[in-house]
From TrEMBL:
Designated gene of the protein: Rdh11
Keywords: Oxidoreductase
Family: Belongs to the short-chain dehydrogenases/reductases (SDR) family.
Listed InterPro entries: NAD(P)-bd_dom_sf, SDR_fam
Ribonucleoprotein in keyword set: no
Alphabetized Pfam families for the sequence: adh_short (PF00106)
GO molecular function: oxidoreductase activity
Descriptive protein name: RDH11 dehydrogenase
Length: 112
């Protein structure tokens, strides 16, 4: 939803292979179908990613590096507010993990 979906829609309109990295399979798949229908671009894909989980970030990055020949653009757009306060299973404050650590780790892993 929001800015990420708008960016993905614009990239798909430009005929780019576009990967939506989403926490929710249901919401992500709905966005993929909507973008494919609006653009006619079948190369819009869903991959699951929870940037608050460093394990999820590592799994996602590993899959992208294995499956994709190249990566031209990365849009780090995940974010949430700090309310209510929560700790991830990895012991990280959830907002900090989601908004900063996950994006930092993902970017660095994808640099190759």
């Amino acid at each position: 939803a929001g800015i990420g979906k708008c960016v993905a829609l614009d990239l798909a309109r430009r005929n780019a292979r576009t990967i939506l990295a989403c926490r929710s399979r249901e919401r992500g798949q709905a966005a993929v179908e909507e973008i494919r229908a609006a653009t006619g671009n079948p190369a819009v894909l869903l991959r699951l990613l929870d940037t608050s989980s460093m394990a999820s970030v590592r799994t996602f990055a590993r899959a992208v590096l294995q499956e994709e020949k190249r990566l031209d653009l990365l849009v780090n757009n995940a974010g949430l507010t700090g309310l209510p306060f929560a700790i991830t299973p990895e012991g990280l404050e959830q907002t900090f993990a989601t908004n900063y650590l996950g994006a930092f780790l993902l970017t660095n892993l994808l640099l190759g």
